[in-house]
Specification:
Blueprint (H helix, E strand, L loop, with lengths): L5 E5 L6 H9 L16 E8 L2 E8 L9 H16 L2 E7 L6 H12 L5 E6 L6 H8 L8 E2 L8 H10 L11 H4 L6 E7 L6 H9 L18 E6 L2 E6 L19 H9 L3 E7 L6 H13 L2 E7 L6 H14 L8 E3 L8 H15 L5 H14 L11 E9 L4 E7 L6 H15 L7 E6 L6
Parallel strand pairs: 1-3, 1-4, 4-5, 5-6, 7-9, 7-10, 10-11, 11-12, 14-15
Antiparallel strand pairs: 2-3, 8-9, 13-14
Length: 449
């Protein structure tokens, strides 16, 4: 089974955890699940470094021995993040040296019996390496890695060491199995949503049997992580959104709605089914997960469950509200279902098929270019200043999601509104329903060609 490794950053306040987090996510605002009121708790991001991809968790400043209520809450959140992680990066400050809080954190980690702990000394630029290494040896976690999060020194060696370890995870970008996963023609489907939204009920309705699949109870014994099933002439693999690692010690601490599990299930999917509760509406967590699905490029279908519990008079208003809040997913089919009564389940699966087919659609170059020229004929690109963009031809540059590459001149001046117009034209021409569509531009170096 495949999943991105989960790396958590732990350390006392002001040792550079957020700086390292921002370096891994390559953007200060590249946050996946920064829950309201939890900035002092933990922040999830999609990390990349070189050819490696991983989920990175930034935690608040950790002071285990503090009695202050704020730090007690930080300790609880840090504890939960550690229990979700594959690797713990214990970050210390090379400029300030060891302090009592570092020893407290070291003792806390040892009590949890965590084995995959890497001691990392930040702010080590310009320091005596041997003297610094010997000082931090006292913490008892072996030879430390010396880095500078702000300048990037030593960060590459740290990541390479993590991926060279013999842990049970793989590198997504270098994995041929995942890259060619569509070859077996089984649709890898994950159902994501908050607890009690009806995921297990929907799964039982799809499978046609009462099969107990508890998605949000870590450590529960199950006979299968992936579930195979069929509908008409299509085969599916249902991805277990409860995550891949079943650790007995997690069940007592981990929160019911786990962002890490959801992100992992999205990464392993061809199509993501976002399940929402008609009675509750869209929470901040739902909106962030929907945004992450969009950024990941996965095909998506939206299902509003418990529709039978909404009065007939209110349904029109509720439907408009859902569509308004999820306007950025307007390309995705939205279904109003009742998992318990099995209403609209078939239509839901038809949309899953359409989204998968669109994500892996092959777009012939002549047809793509013809669609581009027809779009230009109906509405030419507006010029910006003295520059007039010239779009000459287009071809497909990838799939899952589909990528269309447009060649021409002065393409850097094309406005966002016109890109959205082109996207709608391509979607309409090739019936690309349920999948994100990305458009790339390549300008010729010769302005006269």
């Amino acid at each position: 089974m495949y999943y991105k490794p989960v790396i958590v950053l732990v350390g006392r306040p002001n040792v550079g955890k957020s700086t390292l987090f921002n370096r891994f996510t390559k953007s200060k605002d590249a946050l996946v699940a920064n829950f309201s009121g939890l900035t002092r708790d933990r922040i999830y991001g999609d990390g990349t470094f070189g050819n490696h991809e991983f989920i990175i968790i930034d935690t608040g400043g950790f002071e285990p021995s503090s009695k202050d209520q704020m730090y007690v809450k930080v300790a609880n959140q840090t504890n939960q993040a550690i229990l979700e992680a594959d690797i713990v990066i214990f970050l210390v400050d090379g400029k300030d040296g060891l302090c009592s809080t570092d020893y407290d954190i070291a003792n806390f980690l040892r009590k949890l019996s965590i084995t995959n702990i890497l001691l990392v000394v930040n702010k080590s630029e310009g320091k005596n390496i041997s003297a610094m290494a010997s000082e931090f040896h006292e913490l008892g976690f072996g030879s430390p890695f010396l880095i500078s999060a702000s300048h990037g020194d030593g960060v590459g060696l740290l990541i390479e060491s993590i991926f060279e370890s013999k842990l049970n995870f793989i590198d997504y970008k270098n994995d041929d199995v995942l890259q060619n996963d569509n070859l077996d023609r089984k649709i890898r489907l994950s159902i994501v949503g908050q607890p009690n939204v009806g995921k297990s009920t929907l799964i039982n309705s799809m499978l046609g049997e009462e099969r107990l699949i508890t998605f949000d109870s870590p450590g529960t014994t199950r006979d299968s992580i992936n579930v195979d099933f069929g509908f008409l002439d299509r085969s599916y693999v249902l991805i277990d959104t409860a995550g891949l690692r079943r650790r007995s010690r997690v069940s007592d601490y981990i929160e019911k709605f786990s962002v890490v599990k959801t992100l992992q299930s999205i990464e392993k999917s061809n199509v993501v089914l976002l399940l929402l509760d008609a009675n509750i509406g869209i929470s901040d967590q739902d909106a962030r997960i929907a945004s992450y699905i969009l950024e990941s490029g996965k095909a998506i279908v939206i299902a509003i469950n418990k529709w039978d519990s909404i009065s007939v008079d209110s349904r029109s208003t509720v439907e408009k509200e859902f569509k308004r809040k999820l306007h950025f997913l307007s390309f995705a089919n939205m279904h109003f279902i009742s998992a318990l009564r099995k209403t609209n389940i078939k239509r839901l699966l038809f949309s899953v098929n359409d989204a998968y087919d669109a994500a892996f659609a092959k777009l012939p170059t002549p047809k793509v270019t013809r669609a581009l020229l027809n779009a230009i004929k109906q509405q030419p690109p507006p010029k910006k200043g003295i520059f007039v963009p010239k779009l000459r031809y287009a071809h497909q540059g990838g799939h899952n999601p589909p990528v269309i590459v447009i060649h021409g001149n002065c393409l850097t001046n094309i406005q966002d509104s016109y890109i959205r117009y082109l996207e709608s034209c391509f979607r309409r021409e090739f019936k690309l329903s349920g999948t994100p569509l990305r458009i790339e531009f390549k300008s010729s170096k010769n302005p006269y060609v």
